[in-house]
TrEMBL record:
Name by which UniProt lists this protein: P-type Cu(+) transporter
UniProt entry keywords in alphabetical sequence: ATP-binding, Cell membrane, Copper, Copper transport, Ion transport, Magnesium, Membrane, Metal-binding, Nucleotide-binding, Repeat, Translocase, Transmembrane, Transmembrane helix, Transport
Organism from which the protein derives: Stappia indica
Gene3D superfamilies on file: 3.30.70.100, Calcium-transporting ATPase, cytoplasmic domain N (3.40.1110.10), Calcium-transporting ATPase, cytoplasmic transduction domain A (2.70.150.10), HAD superfamily/HAD-like (3.40.50.1000)
This protein's record includes keyword NAD: no
Amino acid sequence: MVGRWGFQRWQGQGPTNRYFAIDLPIVGRTICLSELEFPSRKEAAMNAPVRAADIKNAAISLPIEGMTCASCVGRVEKALKAVPGVSDAVVNLATEKASITADASIDRAALVKAVEKAGYEVPASFLAVPAAAPAASGPVEIAIEGMTCASCVGRVERALKAVPGVTEAVVNLATEKATIKGSADNAALVAAIEASGYEAKLINSTVSERAVEIAIEGMTCASCVGRVERALKEVPGVTQAVVNLATEKATIRGSADGAALVAAIGNAGYEAKLLSVAGAAGGQPATDDRAEKKEAERRELTRDFTIAAALTLPVFLLEMGSHVIPGVHALIDSTIGMQNGWYLQFVLTTIVLFVPGIRFYEKGIPALWRLAPDMNSLVAVGTLAAYGYSLVATFAPGFLPAGTINVYFEAAAVIVTLILLGRLLEARAKGRTSEAIKRLVGMQAKTARVRRDGKVVEVAIDAVANGDIVEVRPGERVPVDGEVVDGESYVDESMITGEPIPVSKKNGSEVVAGTVNQKGAFAIKATAVGGNTVLSQIIRMVEDAQGSKLPIQAMVDKVTMYFVPVVFAVAALTFAAWLYFGPSPALTFALVNAVAVLIIACPCAMGLATPTSIMVGTGRGAELGVLFRKGEALQLLKDAKVVAVDKTGTLTEGKPALTDLELALGFERSQVLGLVAAVEARSEHPIARAIVDAAAAEAIALPAVSDFESVTGLGVKASADGKGVEIGADRYMIQLGHDVGGFAKVAERLGNEGKSPLYAAIDGKLAAIIAVADPIKPTTPAAIKAMHDLGLKVAMITGDNARTAKAIAAKLGIDEVVAEVLPDGKVEAVRRLKSQYGKVAFVGDGINDAPALAESDVGLAIGTGTDIAIEAADVVLMSGSLQGVPNAIALSKATIGNIRQNLFWAFVYNAALIPVAAGLLYPSYGILLSPVFAAGAMALSSVFVLGNALRLKTFKVAS
C-alpha cells in the first residue's frame, strides 16, 4: 500500500517474525524491518538458544547469502527442514546464518543444494570447512561479532550458559571472544550465540581442558560485556568465560564446542568469530583477519560519519540557524518557506538515520525487543522519539496540542552524527591499545630456510619440525627456538628480555624465535616450533592477561547489568514528570528531557574503564620483559608490602665458581676434588656444576658413581671408586655424626666473605671444606634500592647458611634474612611474612621455589628459571634481572591507578549528568541540557577513558 508521503510499504507474518518494509524512493534503499527481528514473546521462546540436549548428533552453522526479509527466512527454513536427516533449522536474518540440527551423517552438500534450490546462495567456503568437532572436555574459544556493550556480553553469556553441559562461560567484549568450559557440543555453543543475534565462529577446540578465544563485534558498553558473559557461561562445558570490552574478545575455558559458543554470543545479539583454542599443550596464537576487519570497520565508520555530517549540517543550519542567527528565519521563510524547510529536514534526517545510522537500529531495537537493551537501544529509542515527534509535527500537526508544534529533526541527526564520531574515535583508540600484541605477532617469521636432502629450501614456518637444521642469515629474525650447531653471532633479544644489549651466540647456545640476528650467520637445530616457541607462549600469556577480569571488575559488572534498564526507567519518569508537572508546552519539555536522558547515558565508558587499562598495561609490561600470566596479579601486586627473594639465581648470577678447597690431614686435593665432582655430577644444582667445572679445568678424571641419593635441603651421598662420599652443609655433617669443629675458623671466614661453605666426608671421615661463591648480579643493588624507594621491605629466603646469607644481605641492604630453610621452610617463611607485614610477593627461579611462589600473594618467576617455577608464578620476568620486580610493581600501581581514574570518570559522569539531563537543575537555575549536547558528551566520554588508558604506553621504568 502507498502511504501518505509516497512510501511504499507492506507487512506480513513470517514463520518466526512479524515484519514490514518501507521503500524510500529518496534514499534508493529498501529497509526491510524484519532485519530488526520483532518476534512476539511466543516466537521469542521458539527462537531460544539451541541447546545441546536438543541436538541428536550434530549442529551445523550454515551461512546464507541473498536473504532480505522474513519471507526469505521462512522459505529457507522450510527448504532445510525438508532435507532428510534434518530435525530442526533456525534461520537468523541478521546474522545471515542457519543453525541446523541434524544427524551426524548428514550430507552437507544436500543442505547447500536445498538452499540454492530455494533461490539463495551458500559461500563456497562452507563445504571446504570441516564439520564441527565433537564435544570436548576442555575450554572452547569462540570469536563473536556484533557485540557493542556490556549488555551484549551478558546476553551472549546467558545464551551460552543455557546450553546443557556448560559449566562456565566468560565473554570478553574487548577481545570479541568467548571462553567456555564444560562438555557442551561445539556446534550447540555456536548455535546458541547466533540465536542471540551475533556472529560466532569456533576458533578451535581439543579433547582436553582448553582456552577458547572469540572475537566479538557489536559490543558498545559494560552491559554488553555482562550479557555476553552470561550467555557463554550458560553453554554446557564452559567452566569460565571472561569478556573484555577493550580487546573485543572473550576467553572461555572448558570443553564446550566453539561453534556453540559462537552461537550463544550470536543469540545474545552480537557477532562472534572463533580466533584460537589452546589445549593443555598449548596452541599457536591465532593469526586471523581481525586486524583487517577492524581497519575495514574504521573505514566504514569514517565513510558513515562523513555522509552523516554532510547531511546533518544543512539540517542543523535550517533549524538552529533560524533560532540563533538574526535574519535566517526571515530568509528561510521568504525563500523556501518554513514548511518546505521542515520537509527538507525530514528528507535529510531520514537518510542520516536509516543509512549511516542504521547500525543503531539494527542492533538496538532487536535487543530492546528481547528485553535486553544496550547502548544501541538507548540511541535508537532517543533518536526515533525525536524523529517520530517531528514527523507528527510536520505531517500531522493537528494531533499535537497548541504551542507544541516543533520539529527536532536536527536533534536526531546531530545525535547520530556525534555518536558515529565517538565510535570512530573509539575504534581508532582501540586499535592503539592492542599495539603490543600486534608487534609480538609481527615478530613471528613467516618462512624459514631448512637443510633437507643436502639442500637449503625455504619453507613455510608451519612446515618446520623439531630436529630440523635451520639457517639464519645476518639481519634476519630467528624463525624457531633452537640450539646453535654451526656458526656464531650476536642476537638482539630485547623483544624477549627488554635488555637492549645483543647476546653472544655460539655452538651450544640457545636462541629464541622472533629475536633478531646481527651481523654473523649461524645454523640451529629446532627444539620448539609453532605454538611451543617462547614467543608463542609470551603472546598467549599477554592475551590471557589482557582477557582476564580483575576483582575490581565484579562491582562494575553488577552495576552495568541494570544500568540500561534503569536509564530507560529514569527517562520514562522524566517524561511523565515533565508532562504532568512541567511548564507549557509540557509535551515539548517532556520529550526533550527524556531524549537527553537516553542519549547522555554512557555504559560504554564503564565497560571500557578496566579492560583498556589492562590491555595497555600488560602490553607495556611485555615490552619491558614483564609478563603478567594472570590479570589478577596486576591488582594484587600493587598492594604488596614486602618482596621476598630467593638468593641463588635471583640476587646472584646462579653460576657459582669454586674458590676454596681446604683439606683435612691425610687427603689430597686431586683425590677429594675428583670424588666430590663425580658425585656432584649427578646433581643439577649450580654449586654442584661449579665443582664439576673446577675438576674439568684441572683435568681430573671422574670415577664411576653408584647408589646416588639426594637428601632434600641437606646434601647428597653416593659411592665413588669404591668409597662412600657424603657432601653437604654443616648440619648434614652433624646429622651424620661428623665433627666439623676443626674447620670452624675457616667456615667463619668464608661465611663472612659471603661464600657458601660445604663439607665433604669420605669413608666416614671429614675430608674437606669447600667454598663456592656466586657473584651478585650487577643489576641487583639498583633493584633493591628501587624497591625501597617504592616503600617495600625486602626479605631474602634461602637454604644457604645464615652467615653467608647475612653477609650478602648486609652488602645489599636487605631488611630481613631467613636462612637455612628447606622448600617447606620457605613456605612457612612466606606465611610468617604475610602475618607480619601483609601481602607478600615472592621472587624465585628454581624447582624448590615453586611451593613458595604458590603460597605468596603474588609469585614472580625469573624467566631464566625452570618451567615448574614459571608455571607456579603469576608474573614472569623475562630478563632474568631483579630490576623487573620494581618495574612490575610500579606498572601495577600505575595500571590500577589508571583503572580507578577511568571508573571514577565513568561513574561520576553518569551520576552527575543523567540528573542534569532529566532537568533537575531547571527549577533552581533554569538550566536544561540539550539532547545535542548530551550526544556530544556521551560520544566523548568513552574516548576520554580510552585516551586515559593509552597514557600507560608512556610508563617509564624505575631508574
